[in-house]
Amino acid sequence: MAKREYLGHLELMVLLAIMRAGDTAYGVIISREIENKTGRSISLGSVYAILERLQNKKLVIASIGEPTAERGGKARTYFKLTTAGLKQVRGAHEAVMQMAEGLPKLKGGFA
């Protein structure tokens, strides 16, 4: 039987932040997207550790942008979801929606 890899909570948030940022997805922007949408602060070091894990799982790919003067001639590394990454996000979304379906507490009830 094949081992099934599931996305961790932060991995999923990073993937969703990449999708939100589109072509401008790099570490700082990813971290800001997560904080803006969730109110949770995530360190840049954590973002880059997660991005490395996601690259190893072949869920994201990195590309190097043009060097910029504002960064002292350094180039940014941009990230994009792969087809496998998008499939994982869709699967995680579907699983959460199915698990949440019909739960009265999610609609404000106490049953």
Concise structural overview:
By secondary structure, the chain is an alpha+beta fold. The protein is 50% helix and 14% strand.
Overall description:
With 111 residues, the chain is α+β, with helices and mostly antiparallel strands. The protein has one domain (9-106): Winged helix-like DNA-binding domain superfamily/Winged helix DNA-binding domain (Arc Repressor Mutant, subunit A, Orthogonal Bundle). The chain is 50% helix and 14% strand. It has 4 helices and 2 strands. The chain has a two-stranded antiparallel sheet with strand order 1-2. Helix 1 packs across helix 2 and helix 2 crosses helix 3.
Layout of strands and helices, then pairs:
Blueprint: H1 9-21, H2 27-38, H3 44-56, E1 60-67, E2 75-81, H4 83-100
Antiparallel strand pairs: 1-2
Helix pairs in contact: 1-2, 2-3
Largest sheet: 2 strands, antiparallel
Radius of gyration, in angstroms, nearest whole number: 16 Å
Numbering strands along the chain, what is their spatial order in the largest sheet? 1-2
For this entry, what is the oligomeric state of its chains?
A: single chain
Low-confidence stretches: none
Overall pLDDT, averaged?
A: 90
CATH superfamily: Winged helix-like DNA-binding domain superfamily/Winged helix DNA-binding domain
| Helical percentage | 40-55%
- At the fold tier of CATH, the topology name is Arc Repressor Mutant, subunit A
Quickly name the level 1 CATH class: Mainly Alpha
